[in-house]
User: Fold this.
Amino acid sequence: MNQSTHDTASHSKREHGTTRSYVFGFILSLVFTAIPYYLVVNKTVTGTLLLATILGFAFLQMAVQMFYFLHLGRGPKPLYNVGFFVGTFGAILVVVVGSIFIMSHLHHNMMPAEKTMKLAEDEGIHQIHGQKTGACEGVHANHKITIRNGIVSPAFVEARLCDTLTFYKEDDVDREITFGSHPNHGTYAGETELTLHKGRGKMITLGQPGTYQFHDHLNPGTAGYFTVTP
Amino acid sequence: MKEFLLGKLDGHALPHEWFTIGGSVAFVLLGLFVVLVLTRLKRWKWLWNEWLTSVDPKKIGIMYFLAAGFMLVRGGLDAIMIWLQQAISVDGSQGYLSADHFQQVFTAHGNIMVFFVAMGFIFGLINYIVPLQIGARDLASPFLNTLGFWLYIAGILMINMFFLLGGEYAATGWLAVAPLSGPEFSPGVGVDYLIWSLQISGVGTTLGAINFIMTILKMRAPGMTLWKMPLFTWGSLCSMIMAATVFPLLTATLFLLFLDRSFGTHFFTTGGGGDPMMYTNLIWMWGHPEVYILVIPAYGLFGEIVSTFSRKRVASYTANVLGLIGVSVFALSVWLHHFFTMGAGADINSFFGLMTIIIAVPTTVLVFVWIATMYKGRIRFTNPMLWFLGFMGVFATGGISGVMLGFPPADFQLHNSLFLVAHFHSNVIGGVLFGIFAGITYWFPKIAGFKLNQRIGRYAFWCWIAGFCLSFIPMYILGLMGATRRLDHYDSSTGWQPLYVMMLVGGFVIATGVALQIVQIIASAIEKRRLRDTTGDPWDGRSLEWATPSPAPFYNFAAIPQVTSRDAFWEMKKQGLPKPVYEDIVMPKNTAAGIYISILAFLAGFGFVWDIFWLAGLSILGIIICVIVRTFNEHTEYTIPAAEVEKLEEARARATKAADAHKVADTGEDMGLREFIKVVLKWAWDVIRNKRWRTW
Amino acid sequence: MAHMVTALEKSHEEKVATDRVMFGFWVYLMTDLLMFAILFAVYAVLHGNTMGGPSDRDLFSLPLALGETLILLTSSFTCGLGMIAARLGKKNQVLVWFGLTFVLGLMFLGLEFREFAEFIHEGHTLTVNAFLSSFFALVGTHGLHITSGLIWLGVTLAFVWARGLNAHMVRKLALLSLFWHFLDIVWIFIFTIVYLRAFV
Assistant:
């Protein structure tokens, strides 16, 4: 008799929680609120990383509440409610992520005319329905820059507008070509970073006049420059 | 002041066109007739106590059938109106409908057929059959069930309300796509009626779905594990889980559209940063799974029908159940194929195109399971089996054309054409409606206590099949010829008119089929004594609903059956039925709370339609009070003592014996049409000659 | 002996019924969550469409949102403690803890109302642009849920006060606490996605 009363009581505690578990859950949830708040206010990290972090904390917080306050998974078996929660979670992901996914692609494809022009220009399409986009037309001279054992040759290239420039790498070091001088990175004609692979060239179109520096972001000593005359 | 009291409502809202006047007169006359008959027969109290306030899922199921049957005729008339217009509106002739009115007709047709016919029938079947199949006495929450039903009725009233006040329904297509449905392009009350009709019945569906999920998962007879559940119950479970998943999406989306229309927000408007395409995206997240919600219970019941009438176990129960689950899960990930042409790009389109093709796989698994079940079986070609075979043909066509539409490049050609319309009608008529007819003819003896007339049933079936082919094969062809959907006028040089006329003829053949189905029920009632089912098991069935007498007593089972295997009743029959041990039965009391809440919900919706905010506010307050009163009522159940149950059972056994004694010898063939007409004429002559109406 | 058996049976039946109702309510909460999913999706897609008006970063106040969050978290905590008291049958403790939950809920609503009033006063109403529409819809729907939770809580407490704590009331309170914790979880996501995200 005594035994069975005891069983029921401990069962109830396991199912419904104790004051201690509530206090613990409450403290955890306060901590999981404070950390993302602190991160956002103080900008310790930024950008996508921060966004991912605060979202991560939101999910952690949810897990805490599910476990300590809602006692999910501790009811009588079979645990249909856990199944429903997991299913709903999946459905919510489909709804929210699906919507963002679809609508962002839609906006990307259905953008206004001037943006379409810019996109066409970036893609190297020089005219749409008879209208010039600003991209280069036809094939011009090609210039080569080869990087071997950290040495750039030639270190200086002189070219005309609409020529092309190809970077080659002939050593086994990872190389990422960026423009400008280290550590201030710039862009050239919409290009920000070129990751080189051994034996495969990376070609850019020289659609922007002027003199530009470039360097290997991973080994800033490896650098050079080129001039584009109109 | 007037604006505060009546909102947008004024004299112009009264019916003043032929169709609104006609509709209003028809509805008012019908209402008066019903009132008159009930008063004359002094049946008001009976109606209220035995039916309207009943929480018995079997009675609610029958009420669902009646309402859905009525709406089938209502929506069918819309279909005939559409086809009539399209058959005659060529070149100089503008037909008999204005373009705007034509749009309203096809919108109403879509809404009615999906929400009030298909959903109504499906809920009716689930209500009646699922508790019997799982060996339960009632539902987890009988109150939620009545509430769901009455909200559905409120939705029906709301969708027909425009006849009486407002004079216009939405002219936007059944999904009320934005921005057409926004305040800018649809300033009238038509879209508001659509929103509130769908909103009210949609909430009812969600509540009903929650209730059936609870019932199926928590109230099965002892021994019935999930993997021993009958297939229809499995189908219902999948369907209800999907309904509980996607109907909230509909509610939220329509709520936002309502905010756009009534409060000037910018969710789906063209200005103010709104995004009309977002509406398309959201509504199809509900809209696509919705058709699966309708068809999955039908898949389930086909499994049972095939197995019963082939006298075999279903070929692979596991494959069948996994097929049902697979369809339900994939159904959530294909919605974009409804708007491939929106412009989300190749990546998105190829993903959703692929998913659309993948979802055909579990469906195909089901089809092969059914074929394998028939293989080497001793097939009885009864009416339910006929509907099943009809379903196989029509649904396969619809499924294959669906896969065709699932290829984005093909869809760019076929999108918005009649090909698409023919595709989904193949699926909803061939899948859902034929499934419903199969289910109703299969379970009719359980519901009414006598079998349906098989002979007239066959006529009705062949009318449906012939009418369907006549209507929808031309529709596929028209689609391929380039006819877009929802055309109210076209040029004769297109050469489309003969096909459109064929569609109209097909429509009349289908209408004949519906009329024959009504005749079938009347003819069966006439021959009730010969067709009576005194065994409770007229088809040599396999699942538990056949273990209880027909029609089932209000407590379903005098003693809850013990389940040991899949085809539970089949096993019981082989091992001999155990002698029942009677026990006290706890049953829910009748309640009118569902009716009150639904009336208030209707009034709230009406208030929002016409911007009568005091009415809406008061009604919502009333709903809150009703809910509080209901939920804090602790006396909602009563107990029937075991002795009383025994008495009831004995009385029923005596009645069955008496009926058996009086049973007319089975002459083999059911009454034909000619005989039916003879009987009816004889009866009419008798009434006229002996002036029998005096005694009515 | 016989009496004991029936009492036990009754409690078993009660337990089964409670389990069933709790599960049903859980499924309802899931449907509600899906409704919020739509509102979140709409906010995620439309929040940038300010049509030249002030953006989320210009309007929101992080300390206010933090205050609201802390109040709601605390109310969730007191609600849990109230539930423990309810299961032990301690009526007065139930009234105190749930009463505290009620007051905290009111405070939360007050803060939210103040935020809304401020926006509307400055002309940032829900009809201005898609960003504000989706903001008011999402946060307002949560507010409506809190309001209905408070009505429910108030009525239940009145019944507990008048009728005492019986099995029915404990079940009602258990459902209510589920609802309340659930609203807390939804708020966490509003706090993260609407308020914190604005300042990332």
